Amino acid sequence: MSNKIKIIFLVIRDEAPSTRFRVLQHIPELEKFNFDMTIKRIPKDFYSRLKLFNSLSSYDIVFLQKRLFQWWALWYIRRKSKMLIYDFDDAVLFRNSGNFYSASRYRRFRNTMKYSDIVIAGNHYLRDLAMRFTKHVVVIPTGINTRTYLPKSSPVYAPPFTIGWIGSKSNLMLLRQLIEPINALHRETGNFRFKIVCDDFIDGFECPVEKKVWTEQEEVKDIQSFDIGIMPSTENQWTRGKCALKLLQYMSCGIASVASFTDVTAHIVKDGVNGFLASGDEAWLEKLRFLLKNPDHLSAMGTEARKSLLGSYDSETVASQYAKVFQDARPPRNTRPPRF
Predict the structure, then answer these.
(1) What are the pLDDT digits (tens) for 100-127?
(2) Which residues are within 8 A (CB) of 322 and not within 5 positions of it... i.e. 6 or more apart?
(3) Under DSSP, is residue 185 helix (H, G, I), strand (E, B) or coil?
(4) Helix or strand or coil: residue 289?
(5) pTM for the complete prediction?
(6) Ordered alpha helix ranges (H), 23-80
(7) How far is Cα 333 from Cα 323, in angstroms, rounded to an integer?
(8) Cα separation of 32 and 38, whole Å?
(9) Which residues contact 101 (CB under 8 A, 6 or more apart)?
């Protein structure tokens, strides 16, 4: 009989950032830990789901990534699982805009926390949300593959500089708040262009704008084309759950970055050393202006940014944290699935 721990990862879709950065990129590193791993995309139709759920009892650990189910589906998953681990990197119990509270999301989140043997949260804010319903919570940050996200070779920093932003359509509302500071900066300096990498775009910028449709194949190349990376955010129930993925992407590629000051970014960025933190329009204008007027800092800050990730946010380090959870959580062989 194999002594390998059998783990099945249930994911939403392969291209989802949470799947890519909290599951798929860690698989090569996790293979070093004697795990027998299977990755399954959660089907949409009922009978395919039922077939998948019925197979869960053959695994030692069921790793459910981010998805919240209705109570009956969650109950069935829990009954079929010897050990259920739930992993999330967003404030999934809230809506992402408007009235953040959602009774149905909150109820699904509460049930998932109660039914899971272990919950893995992407940051301390998410941990605190989970601990309303369970004590079995571990914080593991989102990591970045520093062997894939590499600095550009022989960078040349000269005007016109490229200020860049990469993200999804749902986060364009955060970028919109920087339209006026960037316009003011352009009127003052006129020595940069703005590049947006996304599956949708916004207008209103006075500077030259390049709109680049995001593809996974060109993602690293697009980030490497930035001279300065930006990550605007706001402080609310939804955004506090963010794990600063785009900031990690910039930093791993050796890009000097400016990010909004949040609890998460404050843990990653040492202001003025490996990046800049900004609160309010004036601070954004000041930090971006400094980098444009002092291009020698772009290389030094980018180098320090990448260095600061190693040992904390690189995928090897993060994967080892997941491995420890899996090893410590290994259920006894032949344990019958729990009943409710």
Answers:
(1) 889 999 999 999 999 999 999 999 999 9
(2) 26, 30, 120, 140
(3) helix
(4) helix
(5) 0.92
(6) 27-30, 46-54, 71-80
(7) 19
(8) 15
(9) 94, 95
